[in-house]
Amino acid sequence: QITLKESGPTIVKPRQTLTLTCTFSGFSLSTSGEGVGWIRQPPGKALEWLAVIYWDDDKRYSPAMRSRLAITKDTSKNQVVLTVTNMDPVDTATYYCAHRHPTWTSYHFDYWGQGMLVTVSS
Amino acid sequence: KFILTQPHSVSESPGKTVTISCTRSSDSIDDNYVHWYQQRPGSSPITLIFEDTQRPSGVPDRFSGSIDSSSNSASLTISGLKSEDEADYFCQSYDTSNHDWVFGGGTKLTVL
């Protein structure tokens, strides 16, 4: 059974860097084909993909957010970390981590964390 | 980069059938699979349909997905509507050229 859970600060100040951790179980990020992504959702708005990291340490970022994002993994701890620099009130959103379905041609997320609301406010 | 456009909202009565569209702005809808997620209020998204037409185990067969090349769109059809189907529905595909995961704007389904 695959589970994921996000953790990190619930409030950050403008211009600060947000660091979120996704702790997962039920799969290993050292297994070929596996990947973990981050998606966010501002209150009342649509889902927005941010980043994904694969078992081979390949990393992909949203073109719109690329300059502000960094994604890393710690395979031994079953964790994926996302950092977002220069936070702004418009970055207030629920941040989800999700397991990428390992079929190479599919590109969808089959398991999602519960999400955590991050508010940007001074 | 392409955009996936969904109607902002749809509504229908219990027991009826509703279809939600997801139109790709450029290139072919067939270029990459389309997937559908359901998000009930206050909950995380769950996968309803993957790879255009496939249902994960546990998803009722009242939910079905299809692709229409002539309109360059994908559709999610829900038959035998229940009050529990009231939720937001998002389509998603993949932009191979930019390695970008693209979500539609979401459709709010109201079961009257």
Name its key features.
heterodimer, A: 122 residues, globular, B: mainly beta, four-stranded antiparallel sheet, 46% strand
> What average pLDDT do the residues of chain A reach?
96
Quickly give the structural class of chain A: mainly beta
User: Helix and strand string of chain B, N-terminal first?
Assistant: EEEEEEEEEE
Total helical elements of chain B: 0
β-strand amount of chain B: over 45%
Instruction: Give the helix proportion of chain A (percent range).
Output: under 10%
What form of chain A results from the Cα inertia axes?
globular
Terminal CA distance of chain B = 36 Å
Please count the helical segments of chain A. Answer: 0
Unreliable stretches covering 5 or more consecutive residues of chain A: none
Shape of chain B: globular
Class of secondary structure makeup of chain B: mainly beta
Order of helices and strands of chain A: EEEEEEEEEEE
- Name the biggest interface: A-B, 24 and 25 residues
